[in-house]
Amino acid sequence: MPRDQDQIFEELLVVFAQGGDTEALEELVRRWAPRLSRHAAYLSSPSAAPDIVQDSLLAIARGIRSLDDPARFPAWAQRIVSNKCADWVRRQRRERSNCDARPVEELGAPHAGEDERTLEVRAALRRLPPERRAILALRYSDSMTDGAISEALGIPVGTVKSRLHAAREELRRTLEHQENRDERS
Prior knowledge:
Blueprint: H1 5-18, H2 22-43, H3 49-63, H4 73-95, H5 116-127, H6 130-140, H7 146-153, H8 157-184
Helix pairs in contact: 1-2, 2-3, 2-4, 2-6, 3-4, 4-7, 5-8, 6-8, 7-8
């Protein structure tokens, strides 16, 4: 797959950051923080995402020299966030051992100009488990390939495909259920 100018530029930023260039590292952080924040919010909680991303960015800064292939930076960074989110979820489970479920938080306020169907899809996405929201976000918001998602989540490509299929099916069922409920109202 051919790389575009942004991908090549980011690979150069990684190489420079690996060499100790703090401006290159700051530029990587500026470019990647929003994507990593979105990923953290899908996997954990929108309110926990800033802290998770902060921890992740520190881990990225400390470990960037160990990254062998600069082209793998996106999947590597997403994997760090995924691991930090998994840690957060484990802590939440321990802290809430007397409670079976945590409330689903808003994924953000609706954006200006969103039509009714977009709002319905966002509401349906909020009802999905965090793992399903995250894999859909990696595919459709971050435009990651199956291979990149596999690397980011640390699962085989076949598992990515089956989880994407399951997430799309669950989203479809949720939307259909929502439509049926609206028609009865």
